[in-house]
Amino acid sequence: MLLLGGTLFAQTRFDYFYLEAEKNRLAGDYASAKELYQHCLDINPNAAETVYNLGLMTLFLRQDSVEMGINMLKKACELDSCNPWYQETLATIYLNARKTNAAIPYLEKLAKLQTNRTDVLSQLASIYRDDGHSDKAIEVFNRIEMQEGKSVQLSMEKFNLYMSKEEEDSAFHELQSLCDEFPHDLNYRVVMANQYQMAGYLEKAMEIYNEVRQKDAHNLNLLLAMMTYYRSTEDNEHFVQLRDSLLFDEGGSSDLRVTLMKDYIDEAIQDTLKRDGMLHAFDSLLSLPQKDAQLLMLKAAYLTYIKAGDDKVTELMKRVLDIEPGNQMALWHLLQYYAPKNNMVAVEDICRKGVNYHPEELAYAYYLGVSLFQQDKLKEAAEVFQQGLRTKTEEARPALVSDMYAVLGDLYYQEKKPLEAFAAYDSALVYVDDNISCLNNYAYYLSLRNEQLDKAEEMSYRTIKAEPDNITYLDTYAWILFMKEDYTNARIYVDRVVKPNLSDEELLKVENLQGNLIEHAGDIYAECGSIDTALRYWNLALLKKDGTCTPLVKKKIKKKKYIK
Q1: 527: helix, coil or strand?
Q2: Between residues 303 and 5, the one the model is more confident about
Q3: Which one of 107, 318, 508, 535 is at 20 to 30 Å from 273 when CA atoms are compared?
Q4: What is this structure's pTM?
Q5: CA nearest to 101, candidates 139, 131, 59
Q6: How far apart are CA 379 and CA 417, in angstroms?
Q7: How far apart are CA 555 and CA 564, in angstroms?
Q8: Per residue in 183-230, pLDDT tens?
Q9: In degrees to the nearest 10, what's the CA dihedral of 370, 372, 377, 378?
């Protein structure tokens, strides 16, 4: 009785300290937990749960060697060999460390403890297979089959293992067993025939193909397999005949046609003599009603590959949108086709589809707004930018958001809303602080209002540092200096815009040299006291006839002086 009482007392003390250790571990007080676990071991050195938790803590905290932690887990597995969690923990640690052989005994034990764990058996089979232990792998696959029943995947695994051992009879017996298990599913017979074909038993393969064909002449897997057979035996006549019958079958699926045409394309790439036939096949197929845009997209990809020209690809992409108005690839292609051509009507149409079908893609809102802006639909453009910016996500590219705010600023300024414009510019620079076009426009509009000229000069200077030959940016900087009455330096910079050594004819031909830039040069020269040069530039500005000059330019010429 004293012994029993002593044992009960020791168990009570153990339980108390073990629970305290668990409380401390869960609370994150690992030092106290470790000390309490050690005390538990003093009471009962063979307590598997304590050894297990100490082993995990050792590995987790990395206070001692990894080997010590693993040895403790191994001891826990020995002390309680029927605990599946201990076995699985140690097996996982070994697998993560790529010590597969060390994991095997624990996976085997786990599989016996939890017989329904086919995932554990699959892991074991993979290890045995990869290590070249084919017999053991087959045995484990058989155990899985006992749990899950026969399947193509399991049968093929065993087939390949038997073939690696050069046991062809056993390999094909395995496939025959699969066919016997599912006698009404002819696809399994096709699988077996395919393997006979790959193994070089062509007569046997054709015998099974013919057997299946008598039962189901339209079996798609069979027809595709026979195409492979004809190709491998270089029976081109039957191959083409079968392929074309599948291609032009009006009841055929788009997926199948695309698969066959991809194969055809591979042939045409290797043999350009087949190109005309392939393109004719495309035309014939596309003359049929299309359930989806797959074939159109495939032909477009091929035309791109052979560099047939953007115009031909574009026509196909238009047809794609007729079937699938939200097709991203078609939308992007058409956008990239029409935007450089400055066809803003087409860009507007494309981007409206993009905004409707892909509202999360901010680029469509941006290009839609730009297209409306360039068509002088300013109010509508501003609404598009505002809506796009309201619905932007965190994934939106900062550069795109910055550009949208910048263009919105331009719109506000044209609508005579300078405060809103400058707020939009500030927002643009929050997203990209070196948005050069935004800095230029912001600086220029400040100078026109004769406001914050020091800030305008600093922003403008950053633009000409970034693009020292950009005449628009140089003009802005020169104009800001002019507004600050620094005429000498303004003249230095404007000479880089309107080069004095060029003749009138040459100046009129300079690309991007608008009338207002030439007028600015005249204003600066007038304030520098060179009225003859100023008159020359003002007259040249009028000759540009691009509508960018101020209404005062004629008055300046008449009065022969700068007029604010």
Answers
A1: helix
A2: 303
A3: 318
A4: 0.68
A5: 131
A6: 12
A7: 11
A8: 999 999 999 999 999 999 999 999 999 999 999 888 888 988 998 899
A9: -20
Tokens of 145: 């089959």
C-alpha to C-alpha distances, 135 to 13, 143, 155, 479, nearest whole angstrom: 51, 13, 14, 87
Write b or e for each residue in 27-47: b if 16 or more Cβ atoms lie within 10 A of its Cβ, otherwise e.
eeeeeebbebbebbeebeeeb
pLDDT at 1: 32
Residue pair 396/362 in contact (Cβ under 8 Å)? The answer is yes
Contact in structure between 403 and 366 (CB atoms under 8 Å): yes
CB-based contacts of 178-182 (< 8 A; 24+ apart in sequence)? 178/150, 178/152, 181/150, 182/150
Confirm if 458 and 491 have CB atoms less than 8 A apart: no
Look at residue 384 and give its three-state secondary structure. Answer: helix
Task: Name the CA radius of gyration of the chain, rounded.
Answer: 40
Q: Which of 124, 129, 38, 53 is nearest to 86 (CA)?
A: 53
Please say whether the beta carbons of 414 and 381 come within 8 A. no
End-to-end CA distance of the chain: 116
Separation CA 318–CA 333 (nearest Å): 10
3-state class (DSSP) for residue 339 = coil
Tell whether the model's pLDDT for residue 2 goes beyond 50.
Answer: no
Cβ contacts of residue 184 below 8 Å, gap of 6+? Answer: none
Q: Tell me, what amino acid is at 285?
A: L
C-beta of residue 82 within 8 angstroms of C-beta of residue 113:
yes
- Number of other CB atoms surrounding residue 484 within 10 Å: 16
- Residue 251's CB is within 10 A of a number of other CB atoms, namely 5
Lookup: tokens for 529: 């006291």
Residue in the structure block whose two tokens are 């932690």: 69
Whats the size of the chain, residue-wise?
A: 564
Please give the structure tokens belonging to residue 453: 């000229």
Alpha helices in 375-452 (DSSP H): 378-390, 398-414, 418-431, 436-448
Question: Quick one: which of 543, 536, 475 has its CA closest to 509?
Answer: 543
Q: How confident is the model at residue 380 (pLDDT cuts 50, 70, 90)?
A: very high
> Tell me, what DSSP letter sits at residue 502?
S
Distances (CA, A) of 145 to 121, 161, 171, 251: 10, 15, 16, 38
The pLDDT of residue 63 is: 59
* Residues 374 and 344: beta-carbon distance below 8 Å: yes
Alpha-carbon separation of residue 232 from 142, 212, 229, 238 (angstroms): 34, 20, 5, 12
